[in-house]
Amino acid sequence: KFFADVKQNPHYTSNSCTSLQFSQPSFEMRISLVVICLLVGVSYSSSSVESWLETAKEETSTGGGKIWAVLVAGSSGFWNYRHQADVCHLYQLLTKKHGIPRQQIIVMMMNDIAYNEENPTPGKIVNALHGVDVYEGTMIDYMQKDVTPENFLDILMGRRMGYGSMKTLRSGPNDYVFVNFVDHGDTGILGFPNDELHLADLTATLNEMHEQKRYKQMLWYVEACFSGSMFQNLSPDMNITAHTAANAEESSYACVFDKKRGTYLGDCWSLNWLNNTEQIFPHLEQETVEEQYEAVKKLTTESHAMIYGDLDVIYHEPISTFLGQGNAVASDEYDSQVVSDFSPVREASVATPDALLDTLRRRQEALLPAETGGLAPRSR
Hints:
Oligomer: single chain
Low-confidence stretches: 1-24, 40-61, 336-345, 368-380
Mean pLDDT: 81
Helix content: 25-40%
Strand content: 15-25%
Number of helices: 9
């Protein structure tokens, strides 16, 4: 179950001309009518496509500019469930609560979790806050082999894409860009399923975006180990602010182990900022980027949440500038989907590099006979 934008058919044929009645039209008149109908059809098709694109451009949130969002879960495998859950959770908030048009959101993730054979609820991905199915309705633009660092950077640059939904970042000098990246990381590296995004390549892309005026302001939220290393030297003069789950020298943490699914459902820092965003809804304009950073920093005790780049202008912008204004009418569609068997171990957390081993240990414990106390011997 996934959705992707498709191009409108450019060969639209108007039926309006076929209903016209003429008495014994001449050959020349028939040819003229055919030409007129073709021109009207092509014109209608072209104007329809252009109108759709212009509508996406004109739908604004603040200051005459649009909000664009790029959401990336860069991992694969069921044990990394939490990364795609985080991204799908955010997608539901942005589209169903915050009023950002789907045309302005680009999603990149493997899409190997919802129908994974290990998933006890096929076709569903639940978030860690209240067990809501966040997969239904998520439009995934790039998946499987298309989840690469090269494609991610091409999308940021607004380059033409020849696969997936073909959506790309069409932002301009008046627009606001929000990027949420969730995966593993290391010093100067963000992970992808079969490759890595290196600091030098990301820095070059951000510099080029700034030179080409591809945004007015850009905000990054990055969940990964050592994520601070990707932005610690970010210039404060590029109109970019980056909020990271960890500093340049430490791991981020997975949270909320679900016994039924045998995996962690979320990441601690991501859950904290998503929960903060839900708590203040629909008054997103009343909390600034700085205030959310400070609130989430206090809540994130496992790692050191950090912020880099422009700490002057963007720092004092309301989060609605990047996350949308809020749309209470649409919120019921999201809130009504509750998974009744949701019973996670909320106090559980583990450093991301240890998440796989911890998951395997917990699964082993669940299989042990009751008389053993459910405790498996740990390797030293």
